[in-house]
């Protein structure tokens, strides 16, 4: 479908067939309650479906039951097509502002959380936006002052956090296995692949990326500084607390720096490993604090929150390095396998597992 | 009226006709022949003479009369055609149009059987993934990748995408077989390098094939966003293949 010009959008054109616009999406009937006229009309005019949308909204006011049915079906069709084509179209025209508008229009239509279109509004990002957010999370001061409120707050996405955490889990597990293989390659130790690293890494990272933003969100809401309406100049920004989704988005992207770092942790030089921990934690910790400054300013415990955020980040990085990668070179013993911390923990867990589920090992 | 009626019946009927004309008119079209014949055909409505599948995949021919071998062979041939199209990805419509999950099931079971670690008495050594872990990674991984491309606005159905991802495991399975054969001899660095090259080729082939099938269904500004999870999915499975020993 060719990019519509400004003239196209300003005219009320009736697009002939849904197949040309839907690109083969299956026709479905939305059994939700009728959407608001304002939401459907706004989304309709914005994307050039204004002909059908405009006529339907005028018909609806007559209260005719047939017109109600037509309106419902046309708005549900627009919600199907608008979720996909609207976002793509808006993205070609406006970039992040249009994406925010399209996302806002979609949520204004009050979709049920049981439909897939409800979740599409959290994936309303393009490639360059994801790359931009990753770069903003690694380089301090790259993002603007109101990044949290204007950029992430308007269009929080779940694509970045989810896939960055999954990539981080597997990169830590794979690099951890490579590190232990290289460490034991010189001995006669017969190396076995340790699949449990995946589960440990997954638990750790998901807890950090989900529980910590929730705690932070609760703390922000609880510790909001009371605002005197007469004194404050900007009450709007003084009462600002970030939404839970924005915090999860920020935290998810802040883990992106650990992906290349985890590959570099394979190099078994202790000094280098610690240097990497400090550098990565400082960089992404600084970015976290800088991005969260508008919200931290409004909190009573701002100092404690800053210390808490930074220390959680440092503890996470150091924990990864020590548990998965820290294999300090000891005096080589020929026959006994070296009791490094991962293998000891692994053995204990496996023994516990075997005791609890005796029947698990039979194939 | 029927000519088989004898005269006495006709006279009775004519008598009744004269005495109760209105009532008779109500029953005039009743067939009073002794044994109405019931004949007909049992045929499937809308049956066509061609043997090609219709647009929605429903076969048009009559499958009640054919031998079972014919039915089974038809499905096997369809699965075989899909394997062929994955290995030489030129024409993409057949995988998408007539999707089925037999190929992915066979491949997944085969790979999980080979990849599972054997339980050993040595408590210090750990093993490869269990059968269930590989199974879950393949199916839940394919479901998550499909969900991701749907959420990004792709216009492909759920099972079509799972079907394509499952069939594109074929090169990875082939590389697993080759690696298993290489592992039969004593390991050297050269053989490890050979396994590495084989696994990398299988991974690249799988990603390229699935990109051909699934790449068109995404909006153009989000294509890398949708392709990256597919890349990650095949990377993880190839890693499992490579680290198996």
Automatic annotation (TrEMBL), chain A:
One of its GO terms (biological process) is vesicle-mediated transport. GO terms for molecular function: small GTPase binding. Residues 16-36 have a biased composition (Polar residues). GO terms for cellular component: Golgi membrane. It comes from the Eukaryota. It holds the Pfam family Yip1. This is Protein YIPF.
TrEMBL record, chain B:
It is a multi-pass membrane protein. GO terms for biological process: endoplasmic reticulum to Golgi vesicle-mediated transport. InterPro entries: Yip1/4-like (IPR045231), Yip1_dom (IPR006977). Pfam families: Yip1. Keywords: Membrane, Transmembrane, Transmembrane helix. The chain crosses the membrane at residues 131-152, 164-186, 192-213, 225-242. Residues 88-240 form the Yip1 domain. Residues 33-61 are annotated as: Disordered. It is found in: Golgi apparatus membrane; Membrane. One of its GO terms (cellular component) is Golgi membrane. PANTHER family: GOLGI MEMBRANE PROTEIN YIP1, PROTEIN YIPF6. Belongs to the YIP1 family. This is Protein YIPF. The lineage of its organism: Eukaryota, Metazoa, Ecdysozoa, Arthropoda, Hexapoda.
């Amino acid at each position: 479908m060719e990019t519509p010009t400004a003239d196209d959008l300003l005219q009320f054109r009736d697009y002939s067939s849904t197949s040309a616009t839907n690109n083969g999406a299956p026709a479905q009937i939305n059994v939700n309650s009728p959407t608001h006229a304002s939401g459907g009309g706004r989304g309709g005019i914005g994307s050039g479906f204004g002909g059908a949308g405009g006529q339907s909204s005028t018909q609806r006011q007559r209260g005719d039951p047939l017109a109600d049915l037509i309106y419902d079906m046309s708005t549900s069709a627009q919600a199907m097509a608008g979720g996909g084509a609207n976002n793509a179209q808006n993205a070609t025209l406006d970039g992040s502002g249009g994406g925010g508008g399209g996302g806002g229009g979609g949520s204004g239509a009050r979709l049920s959380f049981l439909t897939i279109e409800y979740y599409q509004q959290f994936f309303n990002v393009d490639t360059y936006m994801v790359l931009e957010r990753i770069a903003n999370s690694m380089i301090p001061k790259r993002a603007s002052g109101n990044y949290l409120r204007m950029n992430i707050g308007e269009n929080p996405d779940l694509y970045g956090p989810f896939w960055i955490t999954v990539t981080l889990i597997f990169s830590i597990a794979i690099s951890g296995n490579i590190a232990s293989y290289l460490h034991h390659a010189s001995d006669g130790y017969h190396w076995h692949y340790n699949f449990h690293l995946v589960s440990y890494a997954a638990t750790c990272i998901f807890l950090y990326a989900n529980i910590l933003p929730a705690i932070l969100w609760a703390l922000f809401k609880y510790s909001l500084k009371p605002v005197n309406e007469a004194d404050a100049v900007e009450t709007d920004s003084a009462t600002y607390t970030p939404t839970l989704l924005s915090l999860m988005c920020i935290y998810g992207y802040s883990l992106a720096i650990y992906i290349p770092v985890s590959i570099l942790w394979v190099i078994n030089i202790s000094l280098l490993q610690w240097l990497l921990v400090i550098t990565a934690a400082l960089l992404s910790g600084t970015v976290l604090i800088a991005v969260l400054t508008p919200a931290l300013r409004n909190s009573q415990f701002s100092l404690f929150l800053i210390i808490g955020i930074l220390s959680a980040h440092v503890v996470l990085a150091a924990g990864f390095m020590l548990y998965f990668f820290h294999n300090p070179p000891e005096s080589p013993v020929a026959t006994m396998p070296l009791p490094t911390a991962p293998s000891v923990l692994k053995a204990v867990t496996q023994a516990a597992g075997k005791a609890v589920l005796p029947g698990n090992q039979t194939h | 009226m029927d000519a088989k009626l004898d005269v006495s019946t006709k006279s009775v009927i004519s008598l009744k006709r004269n005495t109760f004309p209105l009532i008779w008119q109500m029953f005039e079209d009743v067939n009073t022949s002794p044994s109405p014949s019931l004949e007909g055909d049992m045929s499937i409505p809308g049956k066509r003479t061609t043997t090609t599948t219709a647009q929605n995949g429903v076969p048009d021919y009559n499958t009640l009369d054919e031998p079972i071998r014919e039915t089974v062979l038809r499905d096997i041939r369809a699965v075989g055609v899909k394997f062929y199209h994955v290995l030489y990805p030129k024409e993409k419509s057949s995988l998408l149009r007539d999707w089925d999950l037999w190929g992915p099931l066979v491949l997944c079971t085969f790979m999980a059987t080979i990849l599972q670690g054997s339980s050993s008495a040595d408590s210090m050594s750990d093993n490869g993934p269990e059968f269930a872990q590989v199974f879950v990674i393949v199916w839940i991984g394919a479901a998550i990748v499909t969900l991701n491309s749907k959420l990004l606005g792709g216009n492909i159905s759920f099972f079509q995408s799972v079907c394509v991802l499952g069939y594109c495991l074929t090169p990875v399975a082939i590389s697993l077989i080759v690696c298993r054969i290489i592992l039969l001899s004593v390991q050297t660095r050269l053989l490890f390098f050979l396994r590495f090259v084989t696994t990398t080729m299988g991974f690249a082939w799988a990603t390229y094939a699935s990109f051909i099938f699934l790449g068109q269904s995404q909006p153009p500004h989000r294509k890398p966003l949708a392709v990256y999870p597919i890349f990650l999915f095949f990377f993880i499975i190839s890693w499992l293949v490579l680290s198996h020993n």
